[in-house]
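note to self — DONT lose this again. spent like an hour looking for the file last time. sequence + predicted structure for the chain T wanted, 419 res
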Amino acid sequence: MKNNQIPEVRFSEFTDDWEQRKLSVGMTEYTNRVFIQEDKNYKQVSVKNIGEIVLRGEKIGSKIGRKRQAKVNLKDHPNTLIFTRQTVEQGGIGFAPKETDGAIVTENMPTIDINEKKIDCNYLLAYVKTQEWYRHVILKNIEGGTAQVAIHEDSILSSEVLIPKIDEQQKIGSFFKQLGDTIALHQHELEILKNTKKVFLQKMFPKEGEKVPEVRFPEFTDDWEQRKFENLLDTKNGVRRGPFGSALKKEIFVSKSDYVVYEQHNAIYDHYETRYNITESKFKELSKFSLTEGDFIMSGAGTIGRISRVPYGIKQGVFNQALIRFKINMEITDTEYFIQFVRADNMQKKLTGANPGSAITNLVPMSEVKKWDVLVPSRHEQQKIGSFFKQLDDTIALHQRELEILKNTKKAFLQKMFV
């Protein structure tokens, strides 16, 4: 028979039931009142919904409307928990870092002192991310009849929850602290890899007015050749935009078929799951807009310029009006090189008329893009560049998968290690 007083997953040395207690047993509100002076600067605190407490800059007192504020006091209360009454329901709760000491908080941002002899801080940080916290502390205290959810600190502190003894709290808290640190390390490494790729995309393709890139493999010394963009593409059907003015009506969609419509989410973002099944007759009607394995698909709306390659094994389908399909001339253009060539900083700026990946409403017309002069290296150098970026992309993808596994592992433990 299941014991509702203990979690499903537990460290083996602990066997006692968890005890029902009010959070106030180890949490006490404090208020260090501050009266704002007109000519003095004040650091201000912001609470993010990911549970992060940060400084949001300084403001002179004359520009602060409410003159009665409070401040963070880490000297007397080193374990200060802060949340906002309006966003605690969304995850807006966390511990104040040392740089926020002395910063002011509004009356809607209570400061709570944590007694670590009663409640372990790392345990609490994990607990506030669980379904149990939401069920026992948030849902029970949401006040009805208001447009905006606001939960008062008195309600939170008086909430009764099941909690283990301090030594088990410390063990659980340490476990989630280590897991969180590992996730943060993997996230940092992933960002380094992504930034490394961004730098190489800037340096391994010639800048405007240059004939060779800044960074190059040593065996290549010749200038890159000038060609028209369309020369890189298939001579018969190199570029095609989705069927504008051919909105797909509801009656062509079916619950199940071997034919689908691809759009930005399931093409550009590499999620090739079936989104919209269509009839075989509609597929044949729009066959000139069909996708073939190895085609390149670029976003022509929304986040313009993002490009992806169609993988092997997808369902037969057509692409919609938000996408542009490229087929390359494989005799002179290397596939791995081409996708990085379009992703490169120079090309992205030309395509969007702005910064790479920026959300704008118009793309440079494809008729104009085809006539652009572009610089291209020999096919051997293309292959070398393409292989380099392929390895970098594979490494990034591996780190991304490892990070997702760690996040899912943490999520699973948060579900099973609390009651």
